[in-house]
Amino acid sequence: MPGERTNIYVDGFNLYYCLLKKNPAAKWLNLADLFRRVLPSNDIHRIRYFTALVNAWPADPDQPVRQQTYLRALKTLPEISVHLGTYRLRKKRLYLTNPPLHGPKTAEVLYSEEKGSDVNLASWLLMDAFANDFEVAVVVSDDSDLYEPVRMVTQQLGKKVGILNPQPQGACQLQSAATFVRRLRLGVAAASQFTPTLTDANGTFTRPPTWI
User: Fold this and answer.
1) What pLDDT is attached to residue 3?
2) Bridge-partner residues for 204, per DSSP?
3) What is the pTM of this model?
4) CA distances for 180 relative to 78, 141, 154, angstroms
5) CB 47 within 8 A of CB 77
6) Which residues, in sequence order, are CB contacts of 30 under 8 Å at separation 6+?
7) Is 104 inside any structural domain?
8) What is the reported pLDDT for 109?
9) Spans of the chain below 70 pLDDT
């Protein structure tokens, strides 16, 4: 008997910074395999992955190449669609926390700014709920900005919304709005990797060498 039709909404930056950044061997993550392991009784209908195209940092000029390779890997999975926000590197002058006694009190810093992923995720979650595209929605994030759309889908539209929390510790900020909450563990992510070499319509490509 098939399980409940389930859509999964992945906050790519939240997943990366909470769980994957410090664990290179888990970054080549096959999301379809991961969710089959974590939700074995559900019928995975679609997976929406929300991110933004990163820029090269002076200290890491290959960052965009690695990301594009990973997005290429995700697009080999028929269940997945990729939804892009925007990402910018900007300069900003900020106050130093411990300025020297006779030196400057501020410094110009380079920082990244990602826009749109949380709004895109909320919009598709609500749109799919109104279209009756799922019986269960699962949000992979611990971003408190998603509280209201999750609450609207559960309380106003009467649908189930689960949270897979990628934070290794602490309470889930979305717990009170969700139908259920589970913690996403590093071990299952590390076990759900693509094969090192993949092929798509453009040819063969391999996992970034630093993701081992």
Assistant:
1) 92
2) 199
3) 0.89
4) 27, 13, 11
5) yes
6) 73, 77, 192, 193, 194
7) no
8) 66
9) 1, 87-91, 109-114, 171
Q: What is the CATH number of the domain that holds 193?
A: 3.40.50.1010
Tally of domains in the chain: 1
What pLDDT sits at residue 106? 77
Report which DSSP code applies to 29: B
Tokens read off for 136: 């269960």
Query: What tokens does 41 get?
Result: 């009784």
In sequence order, the 6+-apart residues with CB closer than 8 A to the CB of 51 are 12, 13, 67, 71, 82, 83, 84, 85, 117
Query: Which residues on neighbouring strands pair with residue 85, listed in sequence order?
Result: none
Record the tokens describing residue 19, joined without a space. 């769980």
Cβ atoms within 10 Å of 40's Cβ, excluding its own:
8
Would you state the pLDDT for residue 112?
A: 57
Does a structural domain hold residue 46?
A: yes
Please name which of 47, 68, 29, 71 lies closest in space to residue 194, comparing C-alpha atoms: 29
Q: What is the pLDDT of residue 58?
A: 79
pLDDT of residue 144: 92
How buried is residue 118: exposed, middle or buried, by Cβ count under 10 Å (0-12/13-18/19+)? Answer: buried
Question: Taking CA 123 as the corner, what is the angle to CA 118 and CA 126, rounded to the nearest 5 degrees?
Answer: 125
Structural domain harbouring 159: 5-88+117-206
Report if residue 96 sits inside a domain.
no
